[in-house]
């Protein structure tokens, strides 16, 4: 687990590079130029959404299209918030994603422990059974799951949104690989000491596997935050819609008011963009820490 | 004697394992294995709009599927979509990761911009796509005009509709894939690169003989994740093209959704889902047996 | 029992997680139960944009004037989205008490026996419907029973840019009346740039199955057999007749000649094209008239005209739009409350306001006596076109519209077919034959489930 290299801040220049300063300067300049062009292209859709949100309705609908507004016009934000409870949508998405992340971390760290440390009859068979669920595409289970949730009376509820996603074979697999790197001696010693599985799990395994848990957490969060088909099917009340459904409803409702729609998009993007700006380092570190060594 | 002790211990560990495995197992039973069985069951029935199996039709829906040109078309469309999104997406993410990996001043800024698609979700990305690909007020079309490119019917021409949907998909995945590859790149021991450099290996040579082999586990991971993601793509298609025009973006998952929750033929949709399952199973096996052999684990 | 077992399994497996999410959001459901004597009811609708705001205003006015009833309106996306959502929610406690359903959902609503025919309430209090438009009532009446209360009714009209007409040397007060005239005018209105790019098309239509259905009626032809499913259950789609082929051929020739634009399936995209000056004429529902006129404000003058028809066609339109259904599984108090709201919506005054806010025409003639409406229509003659078109239509099985249970699927099939033809993938006749066969197959499956 010591393979995690927070190498992001690595700034030392190697002596080999320092040898030819002029070529280096040219390559560096070229590098910056490429960086600038590429990053602008990639971020363009988001920047354009921001720009459109500040236009007047007529500007956002004109042909030829405007790249930037003639003057900053913030009324579309006010109108977007009036047209749809975006704050509530965000809150719903946060709650559902948080529950799914927590659930996945809990269930998969537990099951990974059993597969990594315990020896019991049928373990391999069971592990293959787990892996098999990874190969079941979610769409295959969609219809019956929908019927189950409906039968439970969980349409348009948080539990209905989250329940089918609380266990993950992928997470189990990822964490098991990580646990296997924990020296077995630690486990033997702990068990000999009479320290039970739970204590060993809670005091040794979980703290040691924080990076892997972080990776799984980020991955699970992105998946949950992005859910579209499932919430589309099971939310019937405005107040229970997630961001994804809310924003496409807003588009559906306002069709031609592109400035308003884009204001909604920007508002909805705000939390994740802030998260990225603040936590870029942690995000990258967390993801590479889990070190997808398979 | 020893065997008895071991057997006893294993018995005890079975009891210990129970609580660790129970949550996952129960959830899997409820949300994976039971539905899988139910989907197989439903695929043999005609159902009403409430999803109740009404009349048994045996293999009829499978037979109809394989006889249906629409279904074959969906299969091809799915494969095409996977090809168009996975490989270019992977390649692009790799290039970007290499580009932002260099420790230059101000790199954090560029890095943030380049991985910014990680902040968008399928609905926001597709909504922005609707505006950029709009048939009458597209800034993209207008901008390309300056480069002498004739008007493109992004969403109303079958060829371009597929390209548009793929573009959005690749763009959405860029951020996450770049981060993963960046992580993989930075885990490569610096000493190896240094010694290759001292041996006189140029950038491309180092890339080919040191970086890529060491990065292969991450590349493989990204490949698997994005293949699964591509097969499951739904939101962008539903929002941007609704499977059209002329079924040109009618991928399998969209077809399942359409049959189930538009035409309300859960039986036929279930049969399609089972076919999708079979394809993915094959493909996953293929990935693990053929591709993973080329992966270099440390 | 099964439910209890499921819950048990889940509770067991989730442990802490279920405690976390245990805060079920019963706010909306529990509020539904009449606790303080106020009956709350949920209304689902598919009215976006200006129409949505218009409907919200009606709901607001109703709630303000009725202290014992509270209507919660929920927008559920397009008609298709809303209807499909309803089908999936049917039988759960999240289903609405009152729902706006599009015209083509009528057969399914009857077959699923989920609604109380409004005829019951009409008979019970001898509610007077004598001044309701006959053409509209025809659509929603089957077996002598009015199943749902019409609310928003529309038909398609031709919109045109008067300034572009002048620019092309055409008389802005002489819009085309026939397909041949449309072709001629479209040719003159089409504007190309030096590079051969089309800057403005003469004519456009969204690839929307509703237009196809309208043009079947316009040529007095049936969409499905058994009198459009009105004499008996339809068992066969018959739209692959000469009328269907003629209409799609006309469209195809226009596109091929480069004078008809194709802006995709969404009507909003064609509206946007018109507002941006990319097309000089287009066909769309009269419900868009308010939005289109407002959107062109300060840019050009908008004219409207009756649907251009082919030579020798009798003309006429089907009443499109939506009606209000009261759900059977709701307690009687809610059904009664829903009926109160329906009466409020059908009130001449409400209908007049609704008409001016959107372009939907009033469902009853008394609304034309309302002064505001008179003033408004004098100022905006564009709103008058659809009303004339409605009154000029002779009731018949063709113009009453088809009632088939698989209509949403049929409409989507026709749309794909039109795309296939416009893109040159298939010939018109082959393509329509294939589509009709598909719809007939779907009807067979549907009838197997629902026919008694």
How is the secondary structure organized here?
The complex is a heterotrimer of chains A (294), B (298) and C (452).
Chain A: H1 15-18, H2 21-53, H3 57-60, H4 75-83, H5 86-117, H6 123-135, H7 138-151, H8 158-162, H9 169-180, H10 184-192, H11 197-208, H12 210-225, H13 229-234, H14 243-254, H15 258-289
Chain B: H1 2-42, E1 45-47, E2 53-56, H2 60-67, H3 69-101, H4 107-114, H5 122-132, H6 139-145, H7 158-186, H8 190-198, H9 203-231, H10 235-240, H11 252-261, H12 266-291
Antiparallel strand pairs in B: 1-2
Helix pairs in contact in B: 1-12, 3-7, 3-9, 5-7, 7-9, 8-9, 9-12, 11-12
Chain C: H1 2-14, H2 16-21, H3 27-32, E1 39-45, H4 49-65, E2 69-75, H5 79-89, E3 98-102, H6 106-111, E4 115-116, H7 118-125, H8 134-140, E5 141-142, E6 145-146, E7 149-154, E8 156-161, H9 162-167, H10 179-189, E9 191-192, E10 198-200, E11 203-205, H11 209-218, H12 225-229, H13 242-256, E12 260-261, H14 267-275, E13 281-285, H15 289-296, E14 302-305, E15 320-327, H16 332-346, H17 348-358, H18 371-379, H19 384-392, H20 397-400, H21 407-422, H22 428-450
Parallel strand pairs in C: 1-2, 1-3, 11-12, 11-13
Antiparallel strand pairs in C: 3-15, 4-15, 5-6, 7-15, 8-13, 8-14, 9-10
Helix pairs in contact in C: 4-17, 17-18, 21-22
Task: Provide structural commentary.
- The complex is a heterotrimer of chains A (294), B (298) and C (452).
- Chain A is mainly alpha-helical.
- In chain A, 72% of the residues lie in helices and 0% in strands.
- The longest helix of chain A has 33 residues, at 21-53.
- In chain A, 48% of the residues are buried.
- Chain B has 2 domains: 2-42, no CATH class; 65-294, MetI-like fold, CATH 1.10.3720.10.
- In chain B, helix 3 runs parallel beside helix 7 and helix 8 (190-198) packs antiparallel against helix 9.
- Chain C is an alpha/beta fold.
- Chain C folds into 2 domains: 36-154 and 320-379, D-Maltodextrin-Binding Protein, domain 2 (3-Layer(aba) Sandwich); 156-316 and 406-450, Periplasmic binding protein-like II (D-Maltodextrin-Binding Protein, domain 2, 3-Layer(aba) Sandwich).
- The longest helix of chain C is centred in the last third of the chain and has 23 residues, at 428-450.
- The radius of gyration of chain C is 23 Å and the shape is globular.
- The chains are: A mainly alpha (294), B mainly alpha (298), C alpha/beta (452).
- The interface between A and C is large, with 36 and 45 residues.
